[in-house]
Design a protein that fits this description.
hydrolase; alpha+beta
Length: about 270
């Protein structure tokens, strides 16, 4: 699912952005329609290099960064496009009129709606797409923000794209810090090895005991597998990231802290 890359097919006020590649392309060629430079949320925005797709993502809030990390952990998801624009202005203008609301404008010209995320997933049925909107509460269709979301929803449904509201009420600073911590294997340039990861996860979970600090569990698993301290830590982080070790994201993760596993994991 992609837009025509030819600027000529769009209204004049959009052509310069399309020409620069904003909102166009898939995978590493995609560029976010919304840019951090000049955005209102600079203090909580982040440039993040992707693991699945090797490009820089522009995430405008900590909530967006948290959700992006959660998406990256899913093995079935193969592409994530942030701030994907709906460049079908004729239709979104019609839908806005039908809903009795004013379409967004910028400098006197219609501005495209943007989906927080357009996600591509590989399933048994092939490639599927879904739109995700981040919202801490259920949208009120009587206020403007809720009405704008409804127009997004209608366009997506018409075009066969399931539209979902993501409840971000549990996306607190602790969850984000934990995701960044277990993702640090990537920053360390650790080369993942699935065979080692499976063996390590099995060994770590066999050594696991409640209320035991991560550092002690790393020592126990390292000794069994004859790994260096660095390799043991990075392999643990990779296993936690890839969900082979089901760590809880709502409890603090640190070398000095006990490791808490997800409620769904039955130990022993």
């Amino acid at each position: 699912m992609d837009w025509n890359a030819s600027p000529a097919v769009y209204p004049p006020h959009l052509r310069s952005r399309v020409r620069r590649g904003f909102g166009i392309g898939i995978g590493p060629d995609y560029r976010s329609w919304c840019q951090i430079k000049g955005s209102a949320g600079k203090g909580t925005s982040a440039y993040v290099r992707g693991i699945k797709i090797d490009r820089i993502y522009q995430l405008l809030s900590e909530k967006e960064t948290t959700y992006f990390y959660l998406l990256e952990r899913s093995r079935s998801i193969i592409d994530i496009r942030e701030h994907w624009p709906i460049l079908d202005l004729d239709r979104t203008l019609q839908l806005s009129r039908q809903c009795g609301i004013h379409h967004p404008f910028r400098n006197g010209a219609p501005e495209p709606f943007t989906l927080d995320f357009l996600v591509t997933e590989l399933t048994d049925k092939g490639l599927t797409y879904r739109a995700a909107n981040l919202s801490p509460t259920v949208a009120n269709l009587h206020d403007r923000s809720g009405q704008l979301l409804h127009v997004q929803y209608l366009w997506c449904i018409e075009n066969g794209v399931p539209w979902f509201r993501v409840d971000t009420s549990q996306f607190d600073r602790k969850v984000l810090q934990n995701l960044r911590y277990i993702r640090s294997w990537f920053l360390h340039q650790y080369r993942s090895d699935d065979e080692l990861a499976e063996s390590y996860a099995e060994t770590f979970l066999a050594c696991y005991e409640r209320n035991v600090p991560l550092q002690s569990l790393l020592v126990a698993s390292r000794q069994r597998l004859h790994l260096t301290d660095t390799a043991a830590l990075d392999t643990f982080l990779y296993c936690a990231w890839s969900q082979r070790i089901p760590v809880s994201l709502t409890h603090r993760l640190a070398l000095s802290a006990p490791v808490v596993l997800d409620d769904g994991y039955n130990h022993g």
